[in-house]
Structures are given as C-alpha cells and as structure tokens.
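Predict structure. Chain length: 629.
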Amino acid sequence: MSTVSQPANRPEQPPPATDPGAAPGAAAGPTPAGDRHRLTALQGLAALSLDAMASVAYGPESIVLVLAAAGAYGLGFTLPVTLAIAALLAVLVASYRQVIAAFPNGGGSYAVAKTHLGSRSALVAAASLVLDYILNVAVSVTAGVAALTSAFPGLYADRVWICLAVLVLVTAINLRGIADSARAFLLPTAVFVASIMAMIVVGLFRDAPASTVTAAGHASVLGQNATSVGALLLLKAFASGCSALTGVEAVANAVPSFRAPATRRAQRTEVALGALLGVMLIGLSLLIGRFHLQPVEGVTVLAQLADASLGHNWAFYVVQFATMVLLALAANTSFGGLPVLMGLLARDNYLPHVFGLKADRQVHRHGVLALAAVSAALLVFSGGDVNTLVPLFAIGVFVGFTLCQAGMVRHWHLERSAGWLGKALLNGFGAVLTAAAAVVVTATKFTEGAWLIVVALPLLVLAFEAVHRAYGRIGDRLGLGRVPEPPRRARSLVVVPVSHLSRLTGEALNAAVSMGDEVIAVTVTYGTEERPGVEALRRDWELWNPGVDLLELPSPTRSLGRPIASYVRDLTDRRPDARVTVLIPEAEPAHLWQRVLQNQRGAVVAHAIRRDTDAVICRLRFRLAPTRP
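Prediction complete.
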C-alpha cells in the first residue's frame, strides 16, 4: 500500500538514503544556498556556547557554597578548585578538538562511543546527552526568568507563563535556522562577555570593594569555627563547580551546522569557547579571593562581584541584565546540538526517521519541535522553579564526557599516530576526573531528584533499542539488502469515488484512464430520501457518457469510507492478478483558511482504504485559482 500526492510540494527533502524509508545520511557537501544557513566560527560561538558562557553565573557560586561549609578557611580553596576545573576544561577542549577532526559528521560522545566502545555505550552517551540538553533548556529558561522576577517581584506569580513565552521565542528563532539564531544572539553574548571581562579587569586593579550594597542586610551562609578542609569537601566542590563545563561538547555535536571547511571552523569555535570560559572562571575566582567574598542568602556571587568591582551603578545593572538575558537564551545551545544528535540517531535507526529530515534552512525541524515540547512539559511540571530542576542537571553531561574520553583513548591506541601515548594519557586522565565528578554529583544529589536521571537514562536506552528492533523487523519484511524479483506488469484497475459531476470529476477520470487499463467510478448511496439526487447524477452521467461505468454502493449506516473499502477488498479478491488503485479527487482552495470549509471526504475515504485494504491510494489535488474581483 502506498500513497501518491499529485502535484505535491516538498518542503523537506532528505538526501539520498541507502534504503527505502531510511533516515538521511550526510550530504556530499553544502550548496552555496545552503551554506548561507550554516555557521561561521563567530556565529558558532554565539549559537552553541551560550550554555557554557552562562555557566559562569552559577559555576563559581556552586564552588563557594560548598566550601563555605568550612568557613573562611574553606573559601581559601576556591582558586585551587577553580584551577583544577580549568585544567579539566583544557583537557576537554583538547579532546573535543580531536573529536571534531575524527568525527566531522557530528555526534560528539555518541559518535566516539559508537566507533570505539560499542553500540550500547554509544546509546548510553546519547541518552545522557539527550537528558542533559533537555534539562539545559528548562534550567536556563527558569534561571533567566528567576533573575527577572528577582528584579521585578510583581512578575513572580506569572513566572511559568513567562518561561513558556521565552521558550516559544527561542524555538521560533531556531525554526528559522541555526544561522539566524546565531545572528540574533550574537549581541547578547558579546555584551555578556564584555561586561564580565570588564568586571574582572577593573576588580583586579582594586584594593578593596567599591561597594557592598547588594550584600548588606543579608544573612551570611558561612560556616563557623572550621579549621580544616577534607578531601570529600574538596571533591564535592570540584564536582559542583564542574557544572560550569556543561555545553563544552555542543560544538562537537553540531559540526555539520558549520560552513565549509566545517571541521576547521568548529575547532576554532571550540578553542575560543574554552579560552573565554577558562579566563572568566579563573578571573572570577581571583576576585572572590581578592575581595574576601562571603556568600549570603538571596544574592548571587556574581552580583556581589559586580558590586565590588564596578560599584552599585549603571554598570552593575548592565552586568545583571546581560546575565539575565544570557541565562534565558542559553537554551539555544540545546537547540543547536540536540536536533543534530537526534538526526544521527535517526540515521542509525534508534529514533524515528522523521528526526533525520532537514527543512530548507538546514533545520532539523522535528527535533527542534520535540525538544520544545518536552522542555515545555518540564517547565510546567517544575512550576518555573529552578531549584526543582538543578539537582537533575549536569549528571548526564559527565557520563557523556567520560565515555567520549574513554573512546578517544581507544582511538589513539588503535591509530598510534605521532604522540599518541601522550594524547591517550591526557584523555584517560580526563575520563577519570569526569567519572569521579559524575559519581560524586549523583551521590550528593541523589535524594534531591538525581534518582530520576538514574532511572530515566536506562529507560531511554531501552527505548532506543526498541526503536532499532522495530526498524530491523520492518527491514526484514521489506527485504532490505536483498535483490528483489524482476518487476512484472500487472493489469491496472483504477477505482474513482465520485459524488457529483464537475471539473474535478473530469480531471479525476482523465488521470484514471491515463493510469489504468480499466476504470470504474463508484458513488455511495444512503437511502430513499437521497434517491432523487442519485438518479440526477445517473442521468447526467449517461448524458456525459465518459466511457466509464458508474457503480452504486449502498450504505445503510450512512458510512462513506467503509462501503468503498469493502468493494475494493472484494474486487481484489476477485481479480488477484490486477493492481488496484483508488484515485481520490480533492479540490484544494486558493486560500489556506478556506480549507476548513471542506467536508474532508477524501481523507475519510483514504483512511478507510488504508486501514482495510492493500490498494494503492492516489490523492489527486485539483488546485483552484484565486478569484479576481
């Protein structure tokens, strides 16, 4: 059974696939027109680094809040912990730079694990990234809106609706293409980076805080009488601060979104992201030590640093506003990376093939919409409260980091290129660090909601495998990979449902006699009360005399599709050597709003034929020209 639409517009065109129905593979290369909708290195920094950039708003704070349990003595370890995170960042950037070169079709952790660690490990990496990307959208939007409602408390009651409005805005921009989203977010990213850098530079030249207004009157959360810092506390601070590393993998996942040469542009973007993020993290850590900052309730560490460096003036509010905007827009990283990853999973038959389709602007439209839908559900479930979502965040990305680094160790071992041992040791060290971070974060946040991720990750892997098995069964039934029998011609019999005489009926019979060796027109009759109309149609048909018989199909239950489907089924049984096609004529109005005026008879008949028979369905659309006044 198949469906043909004639004529048809094709807004989404997959590249040629190796088998019918398969998801598209990588295209041979972008056309100049398609290249306009891809990223430059600078645009890639704006489109794919917002998550990582925005993490400087909560990464250093996560470290400080953990070390504050050990009092002022514990805060003295802020810089060493940050330097350890910066070192891990350097390892990750170097690793993902190599991943980009080795796997230019994107996929990041999934592609590495699939090649070197096996399909099950690849699915774990993919599931962890999917969960992290989805949570990143929800966390970023809620955090940005939380910053807004902190400045304007009157909006707090409407925070869920504001979150959904921000999500709709980001989704709409991404449906226009990743290059358009990059251009839209380039200015907010530049303002945020410039304001943070200015704050760091000015603060490093100050001997004392310029202002402490923001912290005044707020209770300190600093622990008292602590004189030592245990290894477990340092490890927990390290794991909490590693939340600043989320988003580092996004560039490697979305390499196909860059303009040619995509690999080189993506590598430049990865290095620039790592450099900016490292400088900001270390700079903020230096300021925390320089101003002897103490965390207080109700005020972020970044706000205190802006107050101390720039003073409580317009510059302070620029930093706060830029942070708020970038946090809300950091969800764009997920929209740039996850749809590409879903496309690769669809290509490998682990997700429905529809996620592999691209629209004209190089957008994985279905992936964008699916991400938006799931994120909207999370926002509603959490009530727009960021604290409900944060315990679930960043666990998945550490799992992906670990698998990616372990896979790269095997990659270097197999390749054995120049300097492979040093590269393998570097990746192995990074895998140990990220694995430790994953274990610590999961253990410390398990009762706060992290158990949901521990449950959801294997369930998602099982879902991927179920989809894969389903495609395998479909492939066996279709005989994919086997040479089919030579085609043979069968007698073609076309059935045309009609209800009246019109130009539409004429076009339908013209098409039918062109397609088939034998044509039968059928009309459904309902009862004696409509008999005059049927007799009028019969008289008009005989006067017209198109050379095609008109057969009446009685329907006592006033059903339209069932009598036609029953006739087609009987016809197939009586004529097993014939190929039966049902040609359904439909008028297509010139204006979209006029389609609600149609009776949808064609859809009803097509549904019944598809459900009850194996006949070919051909829906002939007769386009009506717009009327002129």
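Summary: The CA atoms of residues 112 and 118 lie 9 Å apart.
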